[in-house]
Write a structure and sequence with these properties.
305 residues; mainly alpha; Na+/H+ antiporter like fold; 15 helices; 78% helix; Mem_transp_PIN-like; Malonate transporter; Na+/solute_symporter_sf
Length: 305
């Protein structure tokens, strides 16, 4: 499909999720079932098929990892400064987190896979895994430190290790390293499953978006959108273009880090004392705006692969 068709497809599925929730078709239980299907089946299949036959020296590069960490840490620092005047620590903690914590799995990797080739998708899978390893403890640390909540980062990291996406990433890289042949039937089946990652993710995100704008600090929402959707991909473009000579590394890094705020940040905000309403509105706002900015990136900024 063309970029315009891809964008229309994404908007249609996102709208279907919103409509399904409004009409009572996409109930919380059904949305949870779709989330589980994406999280435990489609995304792991996509990660494995993207990495198992790629040379490690091609997809795991110092410039890829350095670029990822530089962008994430710089954005966390910028968010800490920009949101210092938020109306409460609950709001500030959420705003900081949602200025860098992107939807790498449900949006980023499927979009990269649908747009670019195998090498770029494999590198995006590495960003997904290492990004999660960086984002999750950093997000918990910020929320806990600003909201005086008790939490065990060790327990959260233990849960992270059991994450099916991480397990599939390790499995794919291990197969690539050892060179174990995978039966064609198995790879074909996993390939079919991986194609459902983006449609399911868009339905789930649409079904989870909240439109309750009562008592919302729109200046904070605007700041989060400006940082996450506009500044972060611009910074990623500068950083990856400086550190990497490979177009696939630049493409994977910029597109993945241009994704909207992750839906999971709402869950973390709820768990660790953040402003839940602000978290929900930020997810909605960054998701809607990023559909346009990602389209611009894919069509006019990112070079052909």
């Amino acid at each position: 499909m063309s970029l315009v068709s891809n964008l229309a497809f994404m908007l249609a599925l996102l709208g279907a999720g919103v409509a399904g929730r409004s009409l009572g078709v996409l109930t919380p239980d059904r949305r949870d079932a779709l989330n589980a299907l994406a999280f435990y089946v489609a995304l792991p299949a996509l990660v494995f098929t993207s990495t198992y036959d790629q040379p490690l020296s091609t997809v795991v590069t110092p410039s890829l990892l350095a670029g990822l960490w530089v962008v994430l840490l710089v954005m966390a620092g910028v968010g800490w400064i920009v949101h210092r005047s938020a109306r409460s620590n609950r709001a500030r903690s959420v705003a900081i987190v949602q200025s860098y914590h992107g939807n790498l799995g449900f949006f980023g990797l499927p979009i990269v896979a649908a747009t670019f080739g195998e090498v770029t998708t494999a590198k995006a899978s590495i960003i997904l895994g290492m990004g999660a390893l960086t984002q999750i403890p950093l997000t918990i640390l910020i929320l806990v430190s600003l909201n005086d909540r008790d939490a065990s980062i060790v327990d959260e990291l233990a849960e992270f290790v059991r994450n099916p996406v991480i397990i599939s990433l390790v499995a794919g890289l291990s197969v690539s390293l050892v060179g174990v042949p995978i039966p064609d039937a198995a790879t074909a089946g996993l390939g079919v499953l991986s194609q459902f990652a983006l449609p399911i993710a868009l339905l789930c995100v649409g079904g989870a978006l909240s439109f309750d704008t009562a008592d919302v600090d729109f200046s904070t929402v605007g700041s989060v959108v400006a940082l996450k959707v506009f500044l972060m991909p611009a910074l990623a473009l500068v950083v990856f273009s400086t550190l990497a000579s490979s177009p696939s590394t630049v493409n994977a890094g910029v597109v993945m880090l241009a994704m909207p705020t992750a839906v999971s940040t709402y869950v973390y905000a709820t768990e660790y004392g953040g402003d839940e309403q602000l978290a929900s509105i930020d997810v909605f706002a960054t998701t809607v705006v990023s559909l346009g900015t990602v389209f611009v990136l894919l069509g006019f900024v990112i070079g052909p692969v």
